[in-house]
Specification:
heterodimer, A: about 270 residues, six-stranded mixed beta sheet, 11 helices, 10 strands, B: about 260 residues, alpha/beta, three-stranded antiparallel beta sheet, 9 helices
């Protein structure tokens, strides 16, 4: 469904060009989940923004990203904007800054829906309420009347997932969706994404630096390091037989961090 | 005993009205005591009031009732010499217009250190936190997150405090860097005999570093685990839920562990 071939991104800083991403290629099939794993600065967010056309003019992007037979990277910007939200939705890292603090959740949801579909305001509200209850958020009417600061980060992130879903996109790009929230909310967001995949058949690109989360949700994993793709394959394969030193390092540090906790909890 | 908190309460005004004020209770009677060279983890979700507790201990907020008592050894000292702090957001906790040497020098100058000794002392601190001496002339934006957090730690230990408050000190870092910073903190705890109060939402990180854990919910300590081996035996509903959620930390299939 999405095929990315030799994606290159560079940015002009002063007189020099610095390469941010070089030669990233992957394919994503329908209702599959791809995890992109890497440390900060490894180029994982930039790759996603490039695919979604969210980079500014100072960036130069080359390569191909074929989505349903069309190359996203050469598409005119108007067509692309229609595609964003409708076909490809994005979930950002920080729910607190992704919403406009001056408007209620309902207001912002209606704005998003009306941008893409010819609904009246009450209809759009009704549609959004339905989605909210489908992702098991209680009392949707009450949530619609709230301003972003009145809700917790975890709650906002779940609303964001719902909002990404409302237009029934084929692909959701989740860029570190659980980094800014605590464990319990993290679990809820992950469950929600899992459910979305099962019920709506949406494909997901899940970007994270957290190896454990990726291992739970992804079918295949792409590991990035300093702008390069260092490992790519099915989740089991990458974690069991990593082909690069860097993947090994990521796995080892993760195991080290959880070992004491695991050891203690294993004593029951 | 290094620090003792007794029944700390704190509330903030919710919204100002002309006629009446409504208050939100953030801390509802928190008591704990911290021993010398010990590390206590305060584990709770966002909005549970754990950072406010930290601010009360630092003296950045005044409690409504209850007491913060330091041991005799350090109670005569000004608060900034007794307690030091490392915050979550390393970018905003350093002045972007000062270079690394100047950032670390500030508490040392406060201490009244001679200019001639300053340079050597800064080098010593940089090396102690695992940075190179050549970093001293750089500015915060030229450093990575992990390096900058090391600078913050160097600044925190500069005045030789007995106690450091770590408010989500590793939460903004990548997992692989978290381990490095936690190892550094463990090392410093050993070599300098510093006590930590480690505020975090991450149970795995807390159990990596801490001797005792306190679970914090809605402004209260709901459960206390004095021996980390007793962690699976928790009884509180919230704590159980939290430990369950942490099962996501594990990798759902066997992977070849080179160490084994």
């Amino acid at each position: 469904m999405l095929e990315v071939r030799e994606l290159n991104v560079s940015v002009a800083t002063g007189n020099t060009q610095s390469h941010l991403v070089s030669d990233v290629s992957f394919t994503l099939k329908e209702d599959q989940c791809l995890g992109i794993l890497g440390e900060s600065g490894s180029g994982k967010s930039v790759s996603c923004s490039a695919i979604n056309g969210l980079l500014g003019e100072q960036f130069s992007v080359s390569g191909q990203a074929i989505f349903d037979g069309e190359n996203l990277l050469t598409m005119p910007s108007k067509q692309r904007q229609d595609m964003r939200g409708q076909q490809i939705a994005m979930i950002m890292q920080s729910p607190m800054t992704a919403f406009n603090p001056l408007f209620t959740i309902g207001n912002q949801a209606v704005e998003t829906i009306k941008q893409h579909q010819p609904h009246s305001t009450p209809d759009a509200k009704k549609l959004f309420c339905e989605i909210l209850s489908k992702v098991n958020l209680k009392n949707p009417q009450y949530l619609l009347s709230k301003y972003p600061h009145e809700l917790s980060g975890g709650m906002l992130q779940r609303i964001m997932v719902a909002l990404a879903l409302v237009l029934k996109p084929k692909l959701i790009i989740a860029d570190e969706p659980t980094t800014a929230i605590d464990y319990i909310s993290q679990r809820e967001v992950i469950n929600e994404l899992q459910m979305v995949r099962e019920r709506f058949g949406t494909s997901i690109i899940f970007v994270s630096h957290d190896l454990s989360l990726v291992s739970h949700i992804a079918d295949s994993v792409l590991v990035m390091h300093q702008g390069k793709m260092v490992d790519y394959g099915s989740t089991q394969q990458v974690f069991n037989a990593p082909s690069s030193q860097h993947t090994r390092y990521l796995i080892d540090t993760r195991l080290k961090l959880i070992n004491r906790f695991k050891h203690v909890m294993g004593g029951v | 005993m290094l620090l003792e908190l007794k029944d700390i309460t704190k509330s903030f005004a919710k919204d100002d009205s002309w006629f009446f004020k409504r208050y939100q209770d953030v801390l509802k009677g928190v008591s704990l005591s911290l021993n010398k060279g010990e590390c206590i983890g305060i584990v709770g979700e966002s909005g549970s009031g754990k950072s406010t507790l930290g601010k009360v201990i630092l003296g950045l907020e005044t409690q409504d009732s209850g007491s913060v008592t330091f041991s005799n050894e350090i109670s005569q000292l000004p608060r900034h010499k007794a307690v030091s702090v490392v915050f979550q957001d390393y970018n905003t906790s350093v002045n972007p217009r000062l270079n690394i040497a100047q950032i670390i020098a500030e508490p040392l100058i406060n201490e009244g250190l001679e200019k001639s000794q300053l340079k050597a002392q800064i080098s010593k601190l940089l090396i102690e936190v695992g940075l190179e001496d050549s970093m001293r002339a750089r500015y915060p934006h030229q450093l990575s997150g992990g390096q900058l957090q090391r600078v913050c730690i160097a600044r925190a230990i500069a005045a030789n405090p007995r106690f450091i408050l770590l408010d989500e000190a590793v939460s903004s870092l990548d997992v692989s860097i978290q381990v490095q910073i936690l190892d550094l903190l463990l090392e410093l705890k050993q070599s300098r005999n510093i006590a930590y109060l480690f505020i975090t939402h991450d149970i795995a990180v807390a159990s990596y570093l801490c001797d005792r854990l306190m679970f914090f919910k809605d402004g209260k300590i709901v459960e206390q685990v004095n021996d980390i081996a007793a962690l699976p035996l928790v009884t509180n509903e919230y704590t159980k839920n939290l430990l369950n959620a942490a099962s996501y930390l594990e990798i759902p299939f066997d992977i070849n562990d080179v160490d084994k």
